[in-house]
Write a structure and sequence with these properties.
With about 110 residues, the chain is mainly alpha-helical. It has one domain. The chain is built from eight helices and no strands. It starts with a helix and ends with a helix.
Length: about 110
């Protein structure tokens, strides 16, 4: 793939992935054909800052990260007496970045 497209994708999504994942993403994109780039470009990734705010305000970030079973369990247990809520606040951004990387790997494996 063209270097300019790879740089554009990485630049626009630098917040959505962990730094070590960006290296693997760049390598995968460089090996990809140009005609398949639109599939990657059309993929929507969760913004870690938005997930962080949802975790603080509502505590429902697990639903946005496709972790529905734990989201329901978290709500049923009243957020684990608020301990689970606090732990999720501190881990929300990292979980969002891992979710985004898994989604990227899934889309690129289909290609």
């Amino acid at each position: 793939m063209e270097k300019s497209k790879v740089d554009m994708f990485v630049g626009l999504n630098v917040e959505n992935f962990a730094p070590q994942d960006l290296v693997a993403i760049r390598a995968k994109l460089e090996q990809m054909d140009d005609d398949k780039f639109y599939l990657i470009q059309g993929t929507e990734f969760q913004k870690p800052s938005t997930i962080f705010l949802i975790a603080i305000i509502l505590g429902w970030e697990r639903f946005w990260l496709d972790d529905v079973a734990l989201g329901i369990l978290k709500i049923i247990t009243c957020y684990g007496c608020l301990i689970w809520w606090l732990v999720d606040i501190f881990s929300a951004k990292d979980r969002a970045k891992r979710y985004n990387y898994k989604k990227f790997v899934l889309v690129t494996s289909i290609l």
